[in-house]
Amino acid sequence: xxxxxxxxxxxxxxxxxxxxxxxxxxxxxxxxxxxxxxxxxxxxxxxxxxxxxxxxxxxxxxxxxxxxxxxxxxxxxxxxxxxxxxxxxxxxxxxxxxxxxxxxxxxxxxxxxxxxxxxxxxxxxxxxxxxxxxxxxxxxxxxxxxxxxxxxxxxxxxxxxxxxxxxxxxxxxxxxxxxxxxxxxxxxxxxxxxxxxxxxxxxxxxxxxxxxxxxxxxxxxxxxxxxxxxxxxxxxxxxxxxxxxxxxxxxxxxxxxxxxxxxxxxxxxxxx
Length: 272
What we know:
Structural class: mainly alpha
Largest sheet: 2 strands, antiparallel
Number of helices: 9
Number of strands: 2
Strand content: under 5%
Strand order of the largest sheet: 1-2
Helix content: 55-70%
């Protein structure tokens, strides 16, 4: 028996609320869209910051393995974008707005802080909500749900499924190539260059694997009569349950509450 290490199994969904909830893949995406639009049209950063905080907590609860890393990345990106915008915002005339913060040795006025918090909060909230939908349902499941519920032509949806399958195939084959390099070693004059050499020498093998995988997919599609009929038989059909309807109603109600509560503070549409 060979002592070579086995190929690591495909990454499974981590522990958290995503697996017990088992939501329909389409419901989280449909639920967050009104909230994203509502916080995008607001001139005040308050709803965006509240949404960002709640979404970061939900990211951690949805997947206890990947959620904290995603939440930290989103928070860091939102803070970076907000700080850069605040530093680049023009300063009002002296004495018009008091200095309220000190970032990297620069005094920031109230209008600069508001501009940075508004953009950073909106981008961070939208990104965290979209990442949350990805943790609750995979992209391939979302495409299948669009075919089942929205009657999207399955030829269009399964083109996306095939593209995502290529990404997964690349990841598997790259793990195999990396294990082979670990067993045989890599010729590199300096240890710091070994990761770069490994990635560069893996390109021809990955391209050959992509061609072989494309041929297998094409032959499989021809053998199964892909596109010959208007519908395609699925092993499991996405089911819409009462909790999916409840999730959409709650999120849409929150979006309406945001507009009603903070609409008086100003909308972006009013400034046009």
